[in-house]
Amino acid sequence: MTRARSLTTRLALSFALIAGCAFAGVGMYLYQALATQIIERDDAELLRKVTRARAELAERDGSAAERLRELGSVVSGNDEYGLRVRLPDGTLLLATGADAGAIPEVTSLAAGAPIDGNAIQTWSTSHGYPVRGVLMLAGPGQPQVVLYQVAASRLALLRAYRWKVIIAACLGALGAGLLGYAALHAGMAPLRRIAAGTKTVTFSSGALPVDPSELPAELNELAQALQHMIERLRERYERLSQFSADLAHDFRTPIGNLLGQTQVALASDRSADEYQALLASNIEEYERLARMIENMLFLARADNARVALNYVDLDLAVELERQADYFELLADSRQITICVDARGTVFADAFLLRRAIGNLISNAVRYSPAGAQIGLSARQLEGEARIEVSNPGPGIAAEHLPKLFDRFFRGDPARANSLESSGIGLAIVKTIMELHHGTVQAESTPGEMTIFRLVFPERPASP
């Protein structure tokens, strides 16, 4: 498995590439500007010489040989310039200066035509050197004159300059990459400090050993996020440790009961009725264990998003009446009445809705005094549906309300009521509401009234 290239190296290479492209772009611009300037300068010199040659052709003094000699002096002293004079029949009268190769057949500049950049023609020599020249007529029936420049030195100058631009761009890119690497390596030092500090974090320390105020502003947010993550992990770890302890405690009680009763029964001979009573008692403990395991499996599936919801529109009055009828016998045994006041509908999973309401009613019946009245109310409001289960009783202390929906939490430190409650019911209610993208709320005044409220959205965001 190949090792991934470091972020510093990748950014340094990116800097080098960007710098190389920038230097190359500037170099191309300067190269084109230089080439254009040189060509304009050479064209101006060429046109100046053409103007002088036309002036020499216009002279009528002296013999033809003297006039050709004066015409040839226009390009003398510069090896790049050349001159050709031909008669209309093609006879070469004068050839001096640089060799321009085969001159193309183009329209010649008339004797009285203006001399400007449009008169310049371009071709190449056999060696590939560019040639720029002007073809002109001395007059009607007069010889054709070609004055040109072979730009060998210009080509060599631009070639040398081009190589210098390429070398400068490469060196600039290399320098930018090295300097960028050094700067990034120094800039990444706080990240390395954070990484080294993170390695030393344990659940017992619970704090990132790096002061966020000493970090750059861009990394301050990262350090704070890591600190919050460490705190959350520590909280989850503590909750998991407490959860394991509570789970062991709650499983130990029924298993201890089963083991103790069975050992006592086997210590001596018993009658069939005694064995039957023992088995009936064991069945109660087994059922309790089965309920606990079923609840734990439900919470585990919910935590891993493996609970599929079947959303339907449910009549609130019908659902609450169904739950009131189901708990009627248990409530009557404690001389408790259940009153229902509901209207509207809720969009939810029927099985999970009934389970959540049933857990709340079961708690209300358990903690309500004899002769009390439990209220079940529901309303469909704008954008949500609310279900409330209220009952009088001892109430819940304010310090216990934030932890009320934690798993295995019970307000009784001695867990005296562990035979009746496993401490998972309200945690299941909270999980069911989270699956529906809703919320569960609890309000309680000790010695007066306790209210649990389920709030369902009209349509879940992601059903």
TrEMBL record:
<dbReference type="InterPro" id="IPR003594">
    <property type="entry name" value="HATPase_dom"/>
</dbReference>
<keyword id="KW-0547">Nucleotide-binding</keyword>
<keyword id="KW-0997">Cell inner membrane</keyword>
<dbReference type="Pfam" id="PF00512">
    <property type="entry name" value="HisKA"/>
</dbReference>
<keyword id="KW-0902">Two-component regulatory system</keyword>
<keyword id="KW-0808">Transferase</keyword>
<keyword id="KW-1133">Transmembrane helix</keyword>
<dbReference type="Pfam" id="PF02518">
    <property type="entry name" value="HATPase_c"/>
</dbReference>
<protein>
    <recommendedName>
        <fullName>Sensor protein</fullName>
        <ecNumber>2.7.13.3</ecNumber>
    </recommendedName>
</protein>
<keyword id="KW-0067">ATP-binding</keyword>
<keyword id="KW-0418">Kinase</keyword>
<keyword id="KW-1003">Cell membrane</keyword>
<feature type="transmembrane region" description="Helical">
    <location>
        <begin position="12"/>
        <end position="31"/>
    </location>
</feature>
<dbReference type="InterPro" id="IPR004358">
    <property type="entry name" value="Sig_transdc_His_kin-like_C"/>
</dbReference>
<feature type="domain" description="Histidine kinase">
    <location>
        <begin position="246"/>
        <end position="460"/>
    </location>
</feature>
<comment type="function">
    <text>Member of a two-component regulatory system.</text>
</comment>
<keyword id="KW-0812">Transmembrane</keyword>
<keyword id="KW-0472">Membrane</keyword>
<dbReference type="InterPro" id="IPR005467">
    <property type="entry name" value="His_kinase_dom"/>
</dbReference>
<dbReference type="InterPro" id="IPR048590">
    <property type="entry name" value="CusS-like_sensor"/>
</dbReference>
<dbReference type="InterPro" id="IPR036097">
    <property type="entry name" value="HisK_dim/P_sf"/>
</dbReference>
<dbReference type="Pfam" id="PF00672">
    <property type="entry name" value="HAMP"/>
</dbReference>
<dbReference type="InterPro" id="IPR003660">
    <property type="entry name" value="HAMP_dom"/>
</dbReference>
<dbReference type="InterPro" id="IPR003661">
    <property type="entry name" value="HisK_dim/P_dom"/>
</dbReference>
<feature type="domain" description="HAMP">
    <location>
        <begin position="185"/>
        <end position="238"/>
    </location>
</feature>
<dbReference type="InterPro" id="IPR006290">
    <property type="entry name" value="CztS_silS_copS"/>
</dbReference>
<keyword id="KW-0597">Phosphoprotein</keyword>
<dbReference type="InterPro" id="IPR050428">
    <property type="entry name" value="TCS_sensor_his_kinase"/>
</dbReference>
<dbReference type="Pfam" id="PF21085">
    <property type="entry name" value="CusS"/>
</dbReference>
<dbReference type="InterPro" id="IPR036890">
    <property type="entry name" value="HATPase_C_sf"/>
</dbReference>
<feature type="transmembrane region" description="Helical">
    <location>
        <begin position="163"/>
        <end position="184"/>
    </location>
</feature>
<dbReference type="GO" id="GO:0004673">
    <property type="term" value="F:protein histidine kinase activity"/>
</dbReference>
